[in-house]
Design brief:
With 359 residues, the protein is α+β, with helices and mostly antiparallel strands. The protein contains seven helices and seven strands; from the N terminus they run ααααβαββαββαββ. The strands form two sheets. The chain has a five-stranded mixed beta sheet with strand order 2-4-5-7-6, covered by helices on one side. The chain has a two-stranded antiparallel sheet with strand order 1-3.
Length: 359
């Protein structure tokens, strides 16, 4: 933003200090005149003929007062300039750090030392902001790189299939069309997941009263064939839990949680339990499943986009792109809720979603 040049904060403080000293000196001289000199007789003989009169005192005191006022003014300007510089030194460091961050370098930190005061609080808040911003930018760059890689894979496969068909016209077309259809469906699903993730991050929602228990029943009904195919017992219990939000996004959130719980389960004989309840002013959704034990260091990374974890990579038709829990977290954040992931001691995961409820 273009602005007209003005006085610096240091110069303003310097003039303020000098002006304060000048006003204080003037007031002191006024007090001397009001309470001392006006009581001295103004006659040629002075007081009892032995003391100087007012005329002599004024003419003797005035030059000294002028010199003192000049000294106060110079002292105020010099001392104020030095004092203002010392006081504003932390702001100078914060300004330099802001300019450095403006060039794209977010790794710089102020780390101001000394006792806690307003400048240190501002410095710590700025360092915290830089840390969060650096983490967010790194996450966005990693997300863009992973998204590009994931989208490039089906396109590369499609090109390879077409090249093979072009070189071998006698190849079975039905098989080629089926494989191209599967690859295209995967690319479409990935694109829709990315769009949904972006929509959840923006937080532009059409809100209404949504009962999480009904969404859980709908998701369970949709995914029941998948659970039966994998011989997983799917159980939905609990009471009404009404939240304020987007029915479409919340349904996708519940569906992703239930589908993940089914897919990442025991090979056979596993269970998935979905429970909803209202806890005061909070609507709670819990999805618990059996499965292999999860390393504690793996759990915090499960909500990162494209992070499946070494124990969660699958090679079947439900391999996915690693966006399931990332979408869940995005939807929960857009609804001002919380998402907790806790590994079960016997294996599997307990996912708890808490959303602001409605009366």
């Amino acid at each position: 933003m273009d602005r007209r040049p003005g006085l610096s904060a240091r110069l303003k403080l310097t003039l303020s200090y000098a002006g304060f000293l000048a006003v204080a000196g003037t007031l002191l001289l006024a007090v001397v005149w009001a309470f001392l000199l006006r009581y001295v007789p103004d006659n040629s003989q002075g007081l009892l003929g032995i003391s100087p009169n007012r005329y002599l005192l004024v003419h003797t005191f005035a030059p000294a007062a002028a010199v003192a006022m000049a000294f106060l003014l110079v002292f105020g300007l010099v001392g104020g300039w030095i004092l203002a510089g010392r006081m504003l030194a932390p702001l100078t460091r914060i300004r330099d750090a802001a300019r450095t961050a403006g060039t794209g370098s977010l790794s710089h930190r102020i780390r101001m030392k000394g006792r806690q005061d307003e400048f240190r609080e501002l410095s710590d808040a700025f360092d915290s902001m830089l840390g969060q911003l650096e983490s967010h930018v790194a996450e966005q760059r990693r997300f863009a790189a992973n998204a590009s890689h994931e989208l490039r894979t089906p396109l590369a496969i499609s090109r390879t299939l077409l090249d093979v068909a072009r070189k071998d016209p006698a190849r079975d077309r039905d098989e080629l069309i089926e494989r191209l259809s599967a690859v295209n469906a995967r690319a479409i699903d990935l694109t829709e997941a990315l769009l949904l993730l972006s929509r959840g991050d923006r937080g532009n929602l059409t809100r209404e009263d949504v009962d999480l228990s009904l969404l859980a029943e709908e998701a369970a009904e949709t995914l029941l064939p998948l659970a039966e195919q994998r011989r997983i017992t799917l159980d939905v219990t609990g009471g009404a839990a009404v939240a304020d939000g987007s029915a479409e996004l919340l349904l996708r959130m519940v569906t992703n949680l239930v589908q993940n719980a089914i897919v990442h389960n025991l090979p056979a004989g596993g269970t998935v339990t979905v429970r909803t309840e209202a806890d005061g002013g909070t609507s709670v959704l819990r999805v618990e499943n059996t499965g292999r034990p999860l390393p504690p260091q793996l759990v915090p990374t499960l909500t990162e986009p494209f992070r499946r974890g070494t124990d969660r990579v699958r090679t079947d038709e439900h391999a996915g792109a690693g966006l399931g829990l990332a979408i869940v977290q995005s939807v929960v954040r857009a609804h001002d809720g919380t998402l907790d992931l806790v590994p079960r001691p016997g294996g599997g995961l307990l996912v708890t979603v808490r959303l602001p409820g409605t009366p």
